[in-house]
Predict the structure.
Amino acid sequence: MAALISTYSGYIALSFLPPLVWLLFWLQEDRRHPEPKHLILLTFVAGIAAAVLAASSELVLFGRPPLLSGLAHRLAPALLALPGLVLGGVALIEEYLKYAAVKFAVLSRREFDEPVDAMVYMVTAALGFAAVENVLFLTPVFGGGFVGGVELTISRFWGANLLHAFSSAIVGYAIARHHWSPWRKHAVAAGVITASVLHALFNSLILTKDTLPASFLLLVVLLLIMAVVVFADFERLKKKSPISTNS
């Protein structure tokens, strides 16, 4: 029993590794005024809680939460039958709950004092969320073979984990626009909807990449476009100060 617990603890640790690597990378985007470590940890944990809540919500709404479908990764092709409405609903639930995690964890705190903070905290919550997804997807695969688990870990590192960071960064930019320009009343809603559409598109391409060869290329193009947008947004917000954005 002890050996089994130790083995699965190792699988869980490996599942958390990709999001933590990405987190260290994204935190470099705010090196001039780094966020307090305790708030980064709190936001990461809030993202974990959001993932648990998302899985529960999807279970209630759809009968079998697509997020939890990672528990039977071999059955992923069966998800091709999911209608676009379900994929869109899943994406909206996940993007909104990642936003809610940041809203309740940090947005009312005095440390949230410059526009770029919104993107940093949203990415942090997204990676906490992605860590839980990794556990659900990767632990069963590791149990079936370590090599297969490593291969899927690498795939998710460059795919789903990055998608969560990018989509939430877009929401973070929308939060910054709203917070420092309060007349932009619908900025956050627009950000969540945009992120949800991109997330749903990513999920649909993932589900068809083995049957439609063009899907993989479209996945790469989608992530590249999101990367350009997100890094441009980071640079745009880093040039702004609370004083200039309130003027």
The two ends are 63 Å apart (CA to CA).
